[in-house]
Every structure is written in C-alpha cells, then in structure tokens.
Design a protein that fits this description.
alpha/beta, Ubiquitin-like (UB roll), Rossmann fold, nine-stranded mixed β-sheet, three-stranded mixed β-sheet, 7 helices, 32% helix
Length: 277
C-alpha cells in the first residue's frame, strides 16, 4: 500500500501568510485620520482656552508705576493711559503719541509688566529760569522755550480733561535783548544757554543759594546774579558742578559777615567783597 505525502512549497506558503486582507488599508487610513482629528481638536481647545484666559480681566491694566517726574504730576500721566485695557492688546504706540505731545515730557520709556502693570519712566524738560525783556518766556535747562499755561487742558482717554496750573518761582534773565524763539524751540545764544545751564545745575544740586537768586544779567564774559538781599554773585560763563558746591559753602559762611559781592570768575578762588568800613 502506497502512502503519498504532499509537501507544500515554502514560497507559496510564505506568500499566503503575508498576503494582507483587502480592507486593512482602509482601517489604517481611518485610524490615522481619527488621530489627526483628535490632535487638531485638542490643539484648538487648548488655543481657545489660552485665548480666553489671556483676554480675561486678570491681564487688564490696573497698576501704573511712574518714575522720573517732578513737574508733571502722576495724575496727568495717568490721565493719558487707557486703564482697564488688556495688557496684551495695549497700544503702546498710541500711548507714546499722547505722552510725546505733552510739552514738559522730553523722553519716556514704556514697559509692560505682566499680569496687570505698566512702567512709565519719563525725562522732563524741567523749567530752569525765566527770560524777560519782552514777553516773559519760561526756559528749560537746555534753553528750550517751554509753554506757560494759566490753565492747561490735557485731553485724556476717559473724556475727563486734566488741568495743570503753572507757577514757577525761578530766576529771571534781564537786561539782554535777543531774537525770540517760539515754544519748544531752543535758543542758540551762548549767554542765554549759559544762564539756563547755570540755573539747571543749581537745581540739580538742590543748592539753597538757588532759592536766593532772583535775577541774572548776562555780560560779555560773565553772568551777574542778584540775590534777595541785594547782594550779588559774579559767575563765569562756564562753571563746574564742583565750583558751584564750593560757592555754596562760601556763600553760607560769608553771609554772616554781610558781604555785598562774591566773585567766582577765577579758577582757583572765590573772592568775597564786604561793604566799605
């Protein structure tokens, strides 16, 4: 009796084993599309959640830190800022435009401090002295003509205008004719510049002598300062901060002796002249 044994070809068996089913590709594509849809949905949900969070009142402008102002009040600057606006959408260019129109603000720096704060740092045009011999003009330390307002109306974003009253007790430059400049223009005359720079430096050092100085008369080679007690001081056209500090010390000492004149025009000495007898 014969026994027959059938042996299947290995190549055929292998081909049969790896042959995919016809719908495997369809299910694979569906799986990939489902994963993609899920990923997009999750990303969109997160995006919407983040957007709503960033637009919440947590990031509304509520606090303002103001630095560097001495003449311009905090309230004047606050009136130019859009309090309550979202910090992310805050229009810094618009704020810069409003601040730049203020006559007493020369330069400024703005910085958002999240979540709800704005830093405003300003450099002012500080009034230094008055210029007479014609219509009275207010000068900054760099001899720029500053506007003078009995009542200055500053528009703001809330619709309520701010009012600034100007009143500066400063020395007056007298006895000197010069072609007048318009507001926010700068004098190029060397004597006007010397007088305004002198006043500005005395202010920076907070010298008590500055409070006694009421009038400045420019001369070709020096400045003559008249004090409240009718005494006078002769200043060089260019005086260093150190020389001004020394002049303050001499003034404090010699005032007790009743001087009539202090001469600070010399490089290494300050001469005190007393009444005759």
């Amino acid at each position: 009796m014969k026994h027959t044994k059938y042996i299947q070809s290995p190549e055929r068996n292998e081909a049969k084993r790896v042959m995919p089913r016809q719908n495997d590709g369809f299910h694979s594509r569906m799986g990939r599309q489902k994963k993609l849809f899920t990923t997009v949905a999750v990303v969109a949900f997160i995006g919407v959640a983040v957007f709503l969070y960033l637009r919440s009142d947590i990031y509304d402008l509520k606090r303002v830190a103001i630095e560097g102002n001495a003449v311009v009040s905090n309230q004047e600057i606050m009136n130019l800022l859009p309090l309550g606006e979202n910090l992310f959408s805050l229009d810094l260019d618009g704020i810069a435009s409003r601040l730049g129109r203020h006559p007493y603000i020369e330069r400024f720096y703005l910085e958002k401090v999240y979540p709800d704060k704005l830093l405003v740092r300003v450099n002012e045009r500080t009034p230094a002295c008055w210029l007479a011999e014609g219509s009275l003009q207010l000068l900054a330390g760099d001899s720029t003509v500053l506007p003078v307002y009995e009542t200055q109306i500053i528009p703001n974003t809330t619709g309520n205008d701010a009012v600034m009253i100007a009143g500066f007790d400063l020395p007056v430059i007298t006895g000197y004719e010069v072609d007048r400049r318009d507001e926010l223009e700068r004098y190029s005359d060397s004597l006007i510049q010397a007088a305004s720079e002198l006043c500005a430096e005395m202010q920076r050092q907070a010298l008590p002598l500055f409070d006694e100085l009421i009038e400045i008369r420019p001369h070709a080679d020096h400045l003559e300062g008249l004090l409240t007690d009718s005494s006078r001081i002769l200043f060089p056209l260019n005086i260093s901060p150190a020389k001004l500090a020394a002049l303050q010390a001499v003034y404090t000492r010699e005032r007790q002796n009743g001087f009539i004149e202090l001469d600070a025009r010399y490089s290494r000495q300050i001469i005190s002249r007393n009444p005759p007898g």
